[in-house]
Design brief:
Layout lengths: L1 E4 L6 E4 L9 H14 L1 E4 L6 H9 L13 E2 L2 E8 L2 E2 L2 E2 L20 E10 L7 E5 H6 L3 H7 L3 E4 L1 H8 L8 H6 L3 E4 L1 E3 L6 E3 L6 E4 L4 H15 L5 E4 L6 E5 L3 E5 L10 E10 L4 E2 L7
């Protein structure tokens, strides 16, 4: 196994590993250490069936069954489909999902340890994904701003982002809404593996800060996101077919970029590892979560 840094402060390309083949315990431990310390792992040139992608994800823990079940694979409900494809006039996957800065699934009872995104079809241009390090972002905050947010909590709301970002989608069902009541998280968290502080923010999913109005919260949120998304913090990933990217939702934020979705197809398969995100406690039964 060889590695190459994607940026100075986070991200690593892992070379010489076939994710479709069995991975020894020793090699898996090496990959897990790289994931904890570098936050973002890239595996290029992978040829994976959905079952093989699921098997790799399950080495890390229980996989999520996405809230939008109409966009998961029938034989593999752990695989969430992201695409602009249609069949018989109906979308076969979620489209324009994540076209804003966010951390995956902070609104779920158990947030996501990490997300694994596998590229099956890629447009000739556009459709990149931007990533930023929320540990480095915290380190670079001015001391007065660190003090201001040290004990601040934020309301993370799927209903809020769904209404604001996806107004053309069908309303959520009562069953779906029951799975995603608003969640409150500290704005400053500690990464369990590294001990580093994390600026735990998202552009759209945070509705407001506890004790502040939505309007006041937006002003502060804009300021925090501006620090987190400075150009020198960002890694832009240009996808190739066969790329599998695995990012740490405890330490990164990401942003899917637009593309020409009229003339070109983008097809991605996503899996997410469910965990008690800042203790590392595994979830025994994802459906119960």
């Amino acid at each position: 196994m060889k590695t190459r840094n994607l940026t100075d402060h986070f991200g690593l390309e892992v070379q010489g590993v076939d994710l479709a083949a069995p991975i020894s315990d020793d090699q898996f431990a090496e990959i897990a250490t790289a994931f904890d310390t570098r936050s973002l792992l890239l595996f290029r040139g992978q040829i994976l069936t959905p079952a093989q992608q699921v098997a790799f994800g399950e080495r890390w823990g229980v996989l999520e069954h996405h809230l939008l079940t109409q966009f998961t694979l029938p034989a593999h409900p752990e695989v969430f489909v992201l695409t602009n494809k249609n069949e018989d006039g109906k979308p076969v996957g979620a489209h324009k999902t994540g076209w804003h800065w966010h951390i995956d699934n902070t609104y779920m009872p158990r947030a996501s340890l990490g997300s694994q995104l596998y590229a099956r079809e890629i447009p000739p241009e556009g459709g990149d994904t931007l990533f930023t390090s929320l540990t480095t972002a915290y380190d670079r905050l001015p001391d007065d701003l660190k003090a201001r947010i040290e004990n601040l909590e934020a309301v993370h709301s799927y209903k809020y982002v769904y209404a604001n970002k996806y107004p053309d989608r069908p309303p959520l069902t009562a069953e779906q809404l029951a799975r995603v009541p608003d969640r409150v998280h500290p704005v400053v968290r500690v990464h369990p593996a590294t001990g580093r502080k994390v600026l735990y923010v998202s552009e759209q999913i945070i509705k407001q800060f506890v004790g502040m109005s939505v309007e006041e919260s937006q002003t502060l949120l804009d300021e925090l996101n501006a620090y987190a998304t400075r150009d020198d913090l960002i890694y832009r990933h240009r996808w190739r077919v066969g790329d599998l990217m695995f990012w740490d939702n405890r330490a990164t934020m990401h942003f899917a970029q637009p593309y020409d979705d009229v003339n070109h197809v983008r097809l991605m398969h996503a899996t997410r590892v469910v965990t008690d995100v800042f203790t590392g406690e595994a979830v025994a039964d994802e459906a119960a979560a």
